[in-house]
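Human: Can I borrow your eye for a moment on a structure tokenisation matter? Separate attempts, laid side by side, tell us more than any discussion would. Could you pick a protein and write out its sequence and tokenised fold? No explanation is needed for now; the record alone will do.

Assistant:
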Amino acid sequence: MRENRLRTLWKSGGAAINGWLAIPNSFSAETMAHQGWDSLTIDLQHGVVDYQAMIPMLQAISTTNTVPVVRVPWLDPSSLMKTLDAGAMAVICPMISTREEAQKLVAYTHYAPRGTRSFGPIRALLYGGADYATHANDTIVTFAMIETAQALDNLDAIMSVEGLDAVYIGPSDLSLALGCRPVFDDVDPKAQEAIDHILERAKAHGLVAGIHNGNPEGAMARIAKGFQFVTVSSDARLMAAGSQAVLSKMRAEPVVATSSGSSTY
């Protein structure tokens, strides 16, 4: 089966730099993949991507060594199983708040005897390899999102579920749950305390901790703290930021006509 480079990177003690795809387009996904991200996450929860758009995006990512990850809309067996059947090498499931929910997540993403995933890896066989069924349970990465006050109360119970590989923090939702501002990087003290606690408990349980970030500086600071999966912005935000930078420069340096009729800045 194809190597899951996330597991290889984490085993060596490294951190994965993850990009985020909210635009439902295979060319933009291919362009992002060719920039050298360790992994790219297709967002089916808050992006405008649906299952039919996801398939060509996964195919586009497959033109590189970038690991394809999908955030599913919810803890739903159909979404999780179809996403894995389509060739995702990792799944991120939002709003996991109890041990029972974490157990369901693990069950839906693992074949028997570890779980209840139905067999039908129609594209995963092409991408993952002919022996996919033999190695999928040990290769696929399962993330539980920790982003509610209830999840904080049940943190150790969630993280002790066998078969869970990693947790992923949504700073905005976690902040809202704690009565704080919904931001990625410069979070309020109460939210920061919760983030630090989640990271500490993840380390204690031998799980990888991931988190969403708005900028590279925030992501680098969190890697220094021990996070091994850091998302930086998204394709839509990066496109908007790049456009703003170009326009700001153009408008700050107006065109001046020369005597030859040409223009300079």
Q: What stands out?
A: The chain has a mean pLDDT of 95. The beta strands are 16-21, 39-43, 67-71, 90-93, 141-146, 166-169, 208-213, 229-232, 256-257, 263-264. The longest strand covers residues 16-21. Residues 235-252 form the longest helix (18 residues).
